[in-house]
Every structure is written in C-alpha cells, then in structure tokens.
C-alpha cells in the first residue's frame, strides 16, 4: 500500500462521494419567522419529519447549518438494512426479550417504510432490493455469526445461513466464506435518496433555510430557536441533529459521535466486474467486531466503509480526512478483492454517526412543556430508522402517537465525562481492532496456504 497516502490525499472529498452542494441553495434565515413546528437538521430524520408533518397539514420550517444532506445522510454506505445483525448483546439484557422484539420490528419496519416512500415521492436512488449478507472471512467467525443470526431470528427478523457451497452458488466473491442472508432491504445511493427527500420537501411547501446554524433555543409553550441572524417561534421543536446534538448542549451524557470512513474505487471495467461474479450485487457486511462493508454501486464502483471507527476528544466532529482509516480500508479492498489488482481509489471521505452505549435509538422529549423532541443514536443503521422516525415524531406531534415510538422508550445508559470517555472509547475500539486484525491475519495465511 506504499503509494496509497498520496492517492488518498488526492481523492479526499470533504462532502463525501455521493453529493455536491445543491444548485438551488435555500436562503439563510434572516429576521423572525414562525411555524407550527421548527426542525433543526436536514438529514433523513429532519426531512422525513418535515414531509410527514406537512402531509398532516402543519406549517414546517427546517433549519440546516450547511445544506440538506451534508451530514451522515449524504455520506453513508447506502445499506437499507433491518433488525438482523444488530448489537443484541448490548441491549437485550437491559430492555428484556419483549421490548427487544418490538425494537427489532422498528428496524425491520424502517426498510418497508423507505421502500414505500421512494415510490410515493418518486425518488430514483438506484435502489437494488438485493437483500444483505453478513459474511465471515475466516472460519473462526462462524460461531459468533450463527449465534447473532439465531438471536435475530428469535427476535423476529428473518435470516438464512449460507454455507460455502451456497455462497459460491450465488457467485459471492471468494473472500466471503459463509454468511447470514437477509432477504429484505438492499443498497441505494444515499446522496440521491437524501436529495430526493429535499426536493420532495420543497415541493410540499416545507421552508428550508440552509447555511443557517442554530445556536440556542428558549423553552416555553412556544419555543424560540435562535440562529446566527434570526429566530423561529413554534409550539414544537424537533432536533434532528444526530451526532452533532451534544454540541447543542443536549444528550451530552447519552450519545457520542463516532467517525466512520469510506473509500470508493474508480469504475470497474467489464472484465473486472466479470472477475468478481456477484451477479445480484447483495450488500455485504462482515462479522468483524467493527464490521467492514463492501458494495457495488450503480456506477460500477466498489464502496467500502467502516473497519475502523474514531472518537475525537470532547465529542467533536471536525470535517477532516482520516488517512489511517482510508489506508485500512484500502488494505481491506486488496485483501477481499485480490482479482482487482491495484485498482485506483476515486474518493475517500468520513462522516459521523451517534452512538449510545446500548447501541439503540435515542428518541425522547425535553423541556418543561415536553415540546422539544429529539432523535439520535441508530448508530450505523439510520437509512431506514431515521427515515421512519419522521413518521413516529409527526404522529407524536399531531397527537395520535405511534406504538413503535412507545416501544423505543427505555433508559439510555450514561456516557462518561472526559477524559475518561476518550480513554474508554478508544481502548474499546483498540481491542476490537486487535481482535479483527487477528482474524484478518488468519484469513490472509489461509489464502497463502
Ligand atoms: C460513512 C458512514 C456510513 C454509514 N453507512 C450506513 C449504512 O450503510 N446504512 C445505514 O442505515 N446507516 C449508515 N450510516 C448511518 C446513517 O448515515 C445515519 O444514521 C443517518 O444518516 C442519520 O441521519 P440524521 O438525519 O439523523 O442525521 P444527519 O444526516 O447527520 O443530519 C444531521 C444534520 O444536522 C445538521 N446540523 C448539525 N448541527 C446543526 C446546527 N447547530 N444548526 C443547524 N443544523 C445543524 C447537520 O449539518 C446535518 O445535516 C453511515 C454513516 C456514515 C458516516
């Protein structure tokens, strides 16, 4: 990988590999405005909430610091995945079997919800309903994968074990030895999805103010949200700021931002594609402690994400390159797809997810009037869940409530103060990296033999 450092500097995309700043930037908020609901953050959660509320007759204003889609929603890997393969160990004992089943059904419902909305809003985002495979790259991963799959099935989320013969019969690239196949969901272009939501919201009459940073709010029967050059008054405030929420002073002891990185190759030639097989192009994730994700895109590139996570001291979220993670991902690319040789990297980027210690969604109400709603967490599963959250929050605000929202209520464990937090999170990530590196070394030796 000697030459990769220079290449990754050249390929770094501060806005990610899927979106550009929109051609029709919405104005910055200047002066006073009012609405029925003011939403902060224009990712999947903020835009979906705005659309659902508007459909119920509400006047909605969305305030976005950069542009709609700037956050994780415009930078993710595009897996629309349900409740199989969640971090069950982190929450099952805390919430109990019955609530865990409902939570898993929330994740599964997220997949159906997005599929319905793509059709309803007429969004073409290259969705490939291929299902998803959680794969092992070394036999030592099989026991954990089978156990996680069994748990998921028990909690109501279907999955089917594919042995080596079944993987080869599907034409899955040979580095992936066995896996758990989940028939629902698949992969999409998250940039096209979030920009489609933005267009749908503008068409529906949602007022979106971009380049408008919220700095604070004042509670009351009517909440006043203060931005750098204006303010909005509304009976309800929704904070859809995900990993950035702690910087606004809320959920500081509930979620931490984790940096996730991605690389994308140049388009594969017809011969390179043929060398892969992979006719159905299922989204593949691995059974590592920190998973790897590998998928083909509609433009015939390969996108790899995760493998390394990074926590920045003090819950900060700088929009900077993460060279070490890109290098690790490039190593993963060459190890999982040796048939592609030294294929060039066209883009590298990073973004932030928010993580609660139990890996569950963090959704709730704040303020004496309970009229400040927030949604964060969902970790690396926000394509479905943070979209569905729009429906749940809209029904809460319009009075009817939704059973899945009640199902998500639980006590989120508290995070640690700094510098303990930094030490604890980076130690845990370090151990995960060490265990994963050991698996990768064994997989490498198995190939050489
Ligand atoms: C590299 C990567 C890969 C991922 N892969 C997947 C995947 O394959 N599948 C999956 O399901 N999930 C994946 N995720 C997670 C998923 O992208 C997120 O869970 C989801 O996009 C969160 O959506 P959101 O709307 O809650 O937050 P975001 O999309 O982060 O939106 C929050 C918005 O708030 C704005 N904001 C912040 N502060 C302020 C302020 N003060 N004033 C105004 N606006 C503000 C931000 O600019 C941002 O646009 C991935 C994430 C990353 C980073």
TrEMBL record:
An example Gene Ontology molecular-function term: oxidoreductase activity
UniProt keyword Phosphoprotein, yes or no: no
EC numbers, comma separated: 1.4.3.-
Pfam families according to UniProt: DAO
Keyword Oxidoreductase: yes
Keywords, alphabetical: Oxidoreductase
Domain of life: Bacteria
Residue ranges of domain FAD dependent oxidoreductase in the record: 36-396
Protein name, UniProt field: Gamma-glutamylputrescine oxidoreductase
Classification lineage: Bacteria, Pseudomonadati, Pseudomonadota, Betaproteobacteria, Burkholderiales
């Amino acid at each position: 990988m000697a030459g990769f450092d220079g290449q990754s500097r050249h390929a770094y995309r501060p806005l990610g590999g899927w979106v550009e700043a929109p051609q029709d930037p919405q104005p910055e908020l200047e002066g006073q405005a009012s609405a029925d609901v003011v939403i902060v953050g224009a990712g999947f959660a903020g835009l979906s909430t705005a659309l659902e509320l508007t459909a119920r007759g509400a006047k909605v204003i969305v305030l976005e610091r950069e542009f709609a889609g700037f956050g994780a929603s415009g930078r993710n890997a595009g897996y629309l995945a349900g409740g199989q393969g969640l971090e069950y160990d982190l929450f099952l004992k805390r919430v109990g079997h019955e609530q865990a089943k409902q939570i898993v059904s929330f994740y599964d419902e997220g997949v159906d919800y997005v599929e319905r909305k793509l059709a309803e809003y007429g969004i073409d985002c290259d969705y490939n309903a291929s299902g998803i495979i959680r794969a092992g790259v070394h036999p030592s991963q099989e026991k954990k994968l089978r156990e996680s799959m069994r748990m998921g099935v028990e909690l109501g989320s279907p999955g089917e074990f594919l042995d080596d013969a079944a993987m080869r019969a599907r034409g899955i690239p040979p580095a992936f030895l066995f896996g758990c196949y989940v028939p629902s969901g698949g992969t999409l272009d998250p940039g096209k999805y979030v920009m489609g939501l933005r267009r749908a919201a503008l068409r529906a009459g949602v007022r979106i103010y971009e380049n408008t940073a919220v700095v604070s709010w004042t509670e009351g029967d009517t909440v006043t949200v203060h931005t750098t050059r204006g303010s909005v008054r509304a009976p309800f405030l929704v904070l859809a700021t995900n990993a950035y929420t702690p910087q606004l002073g809320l959920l500081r002891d509930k979620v931490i931002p984790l940096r996730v990185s991605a690389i994308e190759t140049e388009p594969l030639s017809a011969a390179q594609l043929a060398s892969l097989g992979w006719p159905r192009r299922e989204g593949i994730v691995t059974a590592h402690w920190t998973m790897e994700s590998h998928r083909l895109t509609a433009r015939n590139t390969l996108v790899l994400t995760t493998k390394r996570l990074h926590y920045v001291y003090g819950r900060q979220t700088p929009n900077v390159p993460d060279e070490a993670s890109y290098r690790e991902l490039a190593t993963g690319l060459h190890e999982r797809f040796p048939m592609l040789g030294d294929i060039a990297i066209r883009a590298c980027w990073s973004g932030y997810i928010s993580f609660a210690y139990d890996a569950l969604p963090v959704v709730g109400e704040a303020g004496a009037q309970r009229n400040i709603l927030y949604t964060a967490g969902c970790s690396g599963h926000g394509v479905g869940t943070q979209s569905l959250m729009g429906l749940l929050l809209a029904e809460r605000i319009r009075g009817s409530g939704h059973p899945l929202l009640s199902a998500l209520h639980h006590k989120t464990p508290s995070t640690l103060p700094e510098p303990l937090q930094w030490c604890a999170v980076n130690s845990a990530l370090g151990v995960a990296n060490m265990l994963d590196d050991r698996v990768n070394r064994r997989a490498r030796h198995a190939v050489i033999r």
